[in-house]
Amino acid sequence: MTKRLFACIFVITIALGLLSSCGFQGPPGDGMLSVVTTIFAPYDFARAVAGELAGVTMLLPPAGESHSFEPTPQDIVKIRRCDVFVYVGGESDAWVERILSAMDTSGIQVVTLMDCVELVEEEIKAGMEGEAEGEPDEHVWTSPRNAGLITKKISEAMCAADAQNAGAYRANTEAYLARLDALDREFRDLMDRAVRRTIAFGDRFPFRYFVDAYGLEYCAAFPGCSTETEASAKTVITLIERIRAEGIPVVFHAELSNESMARAIGGETGAEVLQLHACHNISRSDFEAGKSYLDIMRDNLVALKEALL
After folding, report:
1. Which contiguous run of DSSP H or E holds residue 200?
2. Distance between CA 247 and CA 211 in Å, rounded?
3. CA-wise closest residue to 200 among 265, 130, 250
4. Residues 6+ apart with CB under 8 A from 108
5. At 306, is the pLDDT very low, low, confident or very high (cuts 50, 70, 90)?
6. How far is CA 125 from CA 141, 218, 229, in A?
């Protein structure tokens, strides 16, 4: 965390403490439940639960990089004033822990995604760059079944914070869980028909929970939470050789990536270059168009058909 951010947190914490001592309870408004999330996936889950009954805000700007995000003073105020706060947890969210520890959160329902599911550790595959430190993989929402577990926890928090509308939140949750179950069945049907079981990623790999859920193998340049974007020649050559040896027809890149490594590998192997979207964040145009987790995962389903059938 930068000195500038520490200074911002210090100033905001003092200001919030003064406001709290004067009986400050948040901005005037229409009494609608306020939900704040850090990144896109839980933002979209909360929207599905909320319907028209709650306001949902995402702190990460559209097209922003989630792993290097630093909150503004205004973001910290949003957290302090909300009724429900949802964040991932793990190393990338160390800033959240520092902010929450400086606040009185007794009036906020806090949901940590990494507490909602069974965690797996990041791993370093043969040829992949990085150090295996036993850290849990933070990308817990990439499996639709995990997305369902997370949605249930968000729903429970919203019901606890707004008992008056709990019935509607529960009904919205059940409808959304049914859609996630249908999505999961579509992926399982694809895996039943797949003629190969390995996907190649010329990028960071944030899909550990997804491949574990559906019995896939993978090769990639970096683990999911790596801050690296430029791989060594050795790593690129290893990926090229594996793609050629196994006849892998597609090399994937992550969303909002510069795609340069995937395109270089595709140029050497003839593999088609496609996006596999992990729902960390979306472009501004997709955000404004209302694109959802379900929309994105169905785009992934189409891309995976090219890679596996």
Report:
1. strand 198-205
2. 19
3. 250
4. 79, 82, 83, 84, 85
5. very high
6. 21, 8, 17
Looking at the DSSP assignment, which residues form a beta bridge with residue 201?
220, 252
Alpha helix stretches (DSSP H) within the chain = 3-21, 40-50, 73-81, 94-101, 144-161, 166-193, 208-214, 233-246, 260-269, 284-288, 293-308
Predicted model pTM: 0.89
Mind listing the pLDDT tens digit for each residue in 121-148?
A: 988 887 787 765 678 999 999 999 999 9
Q: Is 132 left (phi over 0), alpha (psi -120 to 50) or beta?
A: beta
Longest dimension (CA), the chain: 68
- Tell me the two tokens of residue 147: 């997305």
Residue with tokens 């559906």: 214
Q: What average pLDDT does the segment 22-34 reach? A: 55
Residue 199 DSSP class: E
Residue of 143, 284, 216, 17 lying closest to 9 (CA atoms):
17
Q: What six digits make up the tokens of 238? A: 């290893």
Specify the pLDDT at position 152.
98
Pairing of strands 217-223, 109-112: unpaired
Q: Which of 134, 144, 99, 141 lies closest to 8 in space, CA to CA? A: 99
Q: Specify the DSSP element, H or E, that contains 132.
A: none
Per-residue pLDDT of 259-304, as tens digits, reads: 999 999 999 999 999 999 999 999 999 999 999 999 999 999 999 9
Q: How far is residue 206's CA from residue 223's CA, in Å, rounded to a whole number?
A: 7
For residue 211, what are its two tokens? Answer: 């491949």
Q: Are 231 and 265 in contact (CB under 8 A)?
A: no
Tokens of 292: 């959802």
Question: What integer pLDDT is reported at residue 229 of this predicted model?
Answer: 62
Structure tokens at 210: 């997804």
